[in-house]
Design a protein that fits this description.
Oligomer: single chain
Structural class: alpha+beta
Catalytic activity: K(+)(in) = K(+)(out)
Strand content: 5-15%
Protein name: G protein-activated inward rectifier potassium channel 1
Low-confidence stretches: 1-12
Membrane topology: Multi-pass membrane protein
Main location: membrane
Order of helices and strands: EEHHHHHHEEEE
Radius of gyration: 35 Å
Mean pLDDT: 79
Distance between the termini: 50 Å
Largest sheet: 2 strands, antiparallel
Pfam families: IRK (PF01007), IRK_C (PF17655)
Number of helices: 6
Length: about 230
């Protein structure tokens, strides 16, 4: 190591260099402290509201929007759970009707007309519900006209299935159509600048679109913390 003296005006500065002469040893740059962003790159504000009162009831009052705002893993879980519970409940109702009427013990009797043909146990009742709900209609299991309670249950099943399909499939469609992922391909400049523009100090930054497709009716909203 060697020391050199450089003169700046009337002052002297000692500069330490390496013996190889490759250059001056500079102190390591200070690492920037990573600050928590007020607004994420996707536009979400990192603000948590607390002590508002009645938060849970307000979310449940608008259940559809709450399901749309949930993450995908919770949407898929609720989607599968709702259909599973609805299928098991309706299959249990068909099995209960067959059990009350005694169809389970007389199902193999050709002279007896059951409520639902070829339903012997709970798995066969479950298969009958899936075949009718999904409009598969294999023809092996079918409802007869000797069972008015079965006809009423069939109407209730059709209405309930339509409501569940409309609610869950509509929720999934709206969630898939939201442009949240599209915002990740919009890049903002890492630093902002303040400069004179039209005689006024103006805050300026740059926005870049990574995709070739243009955004229709795009809007930019900024928040300034002063």
């Amino acid at each position: 190591m060697s020391a050199l003296r450089k003169k700046f005006g009337d002052d002297y500065q000692v500069v330490t260099t390496s013996s190889s002469g490759s250059g001056f040893n500079q102190p390591p740059p200070e690492k920037k402290k990573k600050r928590q962003r007020f607004v994420d790159k996707n536009g979400r504000c990192n603000v948590q509201h607390g002590n508002l009162g009645g938060e849970t009831s307000r979310y449940l009052s608008d259940l559809f929007t709450t399901l749309v705002d949930l993450k995908w893993r919770w949407n898929l879980f609720i989607f599968i759970l709702t259909y599973t519970v609805a299928w098991l409940f309706m299959a249990s109702m068909w099995w209960f009707i067959a059990y009350i009427r005694g169809d389970l013990n007389k199902a193999h009797n050709d002279k007896y007309t059951p409520c639902v043909a070829n339903v012997y146990n709970f798995p066969s009742a479950f298969l009958f519900f899936i075949e009718t709900e999904a409009t598969i209609g294999y023809g092996y299991r079918y409802i007869t006209d000797k069972c008015p309670e079965g006809i009423i249950l069939f109407l209730f099943q059709s209405i309930l299935g339509s409501i569940v399909d409309a609610f869950l499939i509509g929720c999934m469609f709206i969630k898939m159509s939201q442009p949240k992922k599209r915002a990740e391909t919009l890049m903002f400049s890492e630093h902002a600048a303040i400069s004179m523009r039209d005689g006024k100090l103006t805050l300026m930054f740059r926005v870049g679109n990574l995709r070739n497709s243009h955004m229709v009716s795009a809007q930019i909203r900024c928040k300034l913390l002063k």
